[in-house]
Q: What sequence folds into this?
DNA sequence: CCGCTTAATGCACACGTTAACATATAGATC
DNA sequence: GATCTATATGTTAACGTGTGCATTAAGCGG
């Protein structure tokens, strides 16, 4: 049914070897012959069978994009931005394969025959088993969004600690002294980094750190809502709260409104990520912009280059800058 | 490097054919032999080479998930919900391939050798060329989210017209008579259906339809913001506005607040989709729930069944129910 | 005219798997 | 015990493509 190089060979009165070489730009073929073959191929609208190619070349023509989980814990904007970034870079005759790591019970099907390379958007150190496996199989791997010290893998992530520090500074500079924190999902590395950044800003300014003002969260809107309720129940609630991400911040704002309080007049809120909606909350959310799409694009580019040249990128950790976006959810109380 | 059935055959002292049969559960193999082979395979942690399998079986083991566009026009929650729905159903030894149709300049690489089946989350009739192509190549195709009358393809979508009708009824029952509409993206079929649903409710109740109260939108938050500003600039603005989706509604609410007006006291707003954030807007958004994840899951199941049994599903249009979610953004003004 | 180099092409096999056909073994039938 | 049948396994070719090696043709120096 489908046209193969043998079909072309028959029409061109050459061997299929010659056709193969002509189509792949081998210097062994006479220019005139090549043109003739190309023309026939074109006219028959030949497309190579990638399975056959892959089989003989020991390449898969597939790039895997993995998330820690697709089913839960990954926010929509995060997933979408990643897909946008990656799919813009990988050209269309690569297969773009997408999965959550938690879809797998064992990793036996993850091997070099199946994936030329992998982009891992990693959120949790539970991914380490996956990373270890991929490395042991020798699959080129770029890890995004989380620092992994293992040898031979390239990290690209946003400087969350720095971003959280900026957010903290902003609150402090605005005159806040009693600052609360709603944390991110416990096992996620980013959660720890953001906490550390905020705390560094507070320590640097000699502000006291009250354990009661630090409450757990899970990066969800519902989690932010509940955490903020807990903070508001304190005898003296904080005047400003740093939320580990925007989803959390939106939930937190709801809890504030529910008590009949106002943002930022009664309580200031800062988020993290700058998802699309954060400029449309009421009041608009002051937050830290994290360039997920840029990270993904950069990661995909790194991988593509790696595959093209065959030389691994330097084992370095690239941190893309975060940026404080000041909107309306923080009160100046000087 | 990688272990093949021939390696197993050598160790088991049988031919590779026997191994192949044993692993594939052929009844021709003695139970004892099978066990022995299985054990060896297991112990060597054998994984089949899917390229070789695909080559000989003329199957690709790949399911394509296509969007009209990944780069633009597809909201994050839409994309994410689709991925969640599909990836939950397709088992992990299928390749899950994801792309936007607009990534392609020509469809020559879309053929049966490359895709066992395709799930198309279609938003625009610009996808018709793609659909036609896939059909002509004989690729099993399930089209989600948009009705396509072409023969032999199965449609699964939400009943947007009915949902919009429900929203309209709700506004009318709440005492609104001057009702505005911010439309969806012009080329998207869903935009027209939602408009029709609303209009039907209004006509049914003998409400006048003012052209000036119907303004264009594009399913984006920014678009909703601008459209609502236009509505508010009217001499007599509507008392309630139906927005073609939640993103639009959120933008619209912002425009209302910006004028110092209140929702729902001064103006009522209804959205469509029930994205995650719509219960966290302030006030919480009354909207119509559209089960994207369920649609995707159902679509993927249909396709999987089709591939498993080899018999095409009846060419029908399945409409999953939408549901009115009443929250706080509509005023009772009776 | 012979041998030698260079350019262009073909032959045959390999990649890992499945399947049609062939073969071997054992038990059943007469 | 010869013949048949059923059961279990092996042989071989095929899927579509790329590549090492052989082959042919042509050009060239002596």
A:
């Amino acid at each position: 049914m489908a046209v193969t190089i043998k079909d072309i060979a028959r029409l061109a009165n050459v061997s299929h070897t010659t056709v193969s070489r002509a189509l792949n730009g081998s210097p062994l073929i006479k220019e005139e012959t090549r043109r003739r073959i190309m023309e026939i191929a074109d006219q028959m609208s030949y497309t190579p069978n990638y399975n056959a190619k892959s089989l003989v070349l020991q390449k898969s023509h597939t790039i895997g994009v993995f998330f820690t989980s697709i089913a839960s814990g990954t926010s929509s904007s995060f997933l979408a931005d990643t897909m946008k970034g990656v799919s813009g870079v990988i050209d269309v005759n690569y297969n773009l394969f997408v999965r959550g790591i938690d879809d797998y019970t064992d990793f036996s099907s993850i091997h070099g025959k199946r994936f030329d390379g992998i982009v891992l958007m990693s959120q949790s150190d539970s991914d380490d088993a996956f990373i270890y496996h991929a490395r042991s199989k020798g699959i080129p791997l770029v890890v995004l969004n989380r620092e992994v010290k293992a040898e031979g893998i390239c990290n690209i992530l946003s400087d969350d600690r720095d971003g959280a520090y900026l957010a903290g500074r902003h609150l402090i500079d605005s005159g806040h002294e009693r600052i609360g924190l709603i944390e991110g999902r416990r096992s996620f590395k980013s959660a720890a980094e953001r906490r550390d950044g905020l705390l560094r800003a507070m320590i640097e300014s000699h502000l006291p750190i009250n354990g009661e003002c630090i409450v757990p969260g899970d990066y969800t809107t519902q989690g932010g809502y509940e955490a903020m309720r807990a903070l508001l129940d304190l005898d003296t609630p904080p005047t400003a709260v740093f939320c580990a991400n925007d989803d959390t911040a939106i939930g937190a704002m709801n809890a504030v409104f529910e008590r009949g309080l106002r943002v930022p007049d009664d309580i200031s809120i800062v988020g993290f990520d700058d998802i699309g909606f954060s400029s449309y909350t009421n009041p608009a959310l002051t937050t830290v912009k994290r360039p997920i799409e840029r990270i993904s694009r950069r990661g995909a580019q790194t991988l593509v280059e790696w595959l093209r040249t065959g030389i691994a990128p330097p084992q370095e950790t690239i941190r893309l800058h975060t940026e404080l976006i000041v909107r309306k959810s923080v009160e100046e109380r000087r």
